[in-house]
Automatic annotation (TrEMBL):
Belongs to the PDCD5 family. Keywords: Acetylation, Apoptosis, Phosphoprotein. The keyword Transport does not apply. Residues 14-23 have a biased composition (Basic and acidic residues). GO terms for cellular component: cytosol; nucleus. Residues 14-38 are annotated as: Disordered. GO terms for molecular function: DNA binding. Pfam families: dsDNA_bind. This is Programmed cell death protein 5. GO terms for biological process: apoptotic process. The keyword Acetylation applies. PANTHER family: PROGRAMMED CELL DEATH PROTEIN 5. It comes from Mastacembelus armatus. May function in the process of apoptosis.
Length: 125
């Protein structure tokens, strides 16, 4: 009985190690895919933006990463469809930032309603 139990424990441990090794390789493949995607994005952005525009976009990414990501996605999409004539300057990037800001601007409205007014009296006696 002891040999059977020991063998079962060994098989279970071997299965755990194999599963763990498999998860590690899947995780590594996921990281490699993310790295390739990041490299591709950077390559496209380097082709469509001049130095000053790249610097401005990098600064924006530090402060507002979601907005910088939206602008990057917009630029990449425009580049893929051939809608960009040449390299975008800093002033061109500012115009694109304004467009993206207008599209993603959140409108806040405040509605105040006075349904019941209470009368407050004070006694000064």
């Amino acid at each position: 009985m002891a040999d059977d139990e020991l063998e079962a424990i060994r098989r279970q441990r071997m299965a755990e190690l194999q599963a763990k090794h498999g998860d590690a390789s899947n995780n590594q493949q996921g990281e490699e895919a993310k790295q390739r995607e990041t490299d591709m994005r950077n390559s496209i952005l380097a082709q469509v933006l001049d130095q000053s525009a790249r610097a401005r976009l990098s600064n924006l990414a530090l402060v507002k990463p979601e907005k910088a990501n939206a602008v990057e996605n917009y630029l990449i999409q425009m580049a893929r469809f051939g809608k960009l004539g040449g390299k975008i300057s800093e002033s061109g990037l500012i115009e694109i930032l304004e467009k993206v800001s207008q599209q993603t601007e959140k409108k806040t409205t405040v509605k105040v309603s006075f349904t019941e007014m209470t009368h407050i009296t004070t006694d000064n006696e």
